[in-house]
Design brief:
The protein is built from two helices and four strands; from the N terminus they run E-E-H-E-E-H. It is α+β, with helices and mostly antiparallel strands. The protein has a four-stranded antiparallel sheet. Helix 1 crosses helix 2. The termini are far apart.
Length: about 100
């Protein structure tokens, strides 16, 4: 995974998320929308063959936090949820 910043302003961030597809991009987009300071978050895959693993994101916040802070929070929430699932799986597998 690699992030290529296209545009950065006070409350707007546009970037490519290289190496990912709809699976992770959709999850990240959904978690971003859970943040009350995110007023817009979306992604698109500009060409289904040439750019299939390079979604383009746009994140806009209300100015209370930066888009980078919103991304950090979203990434942490995804990490925490994945850890929770892993721990539940380990518990279930030990029974």
């Amino acid at each position: 995974m690699r992030i290529e910043v296209i545009k950065r302003e006070a409350n707007v961030l546009e970037f490519y998320l290289e190496g990912e597809d709809h699976t992770f991009a959709g999850l990240l987009n959904e978690v971003l929308h859970e943040n009350r300071h995110v007023v817009f978050a979306s992604y698109a895959i500009e060409h289904p063959i040439l750019m299939a693993r390079k979604p383009r994101f746009k994140v806009v916040t209300d100015g209370e936090i930066t888009p980078e802070e919103a991304l950090e929070e979203a990434a942490q929430r995804i990490f925490d949820k994945a850890r929770e699932v892993l721990n539940l799986w380990k518990e279930a597998a030990e029974r």
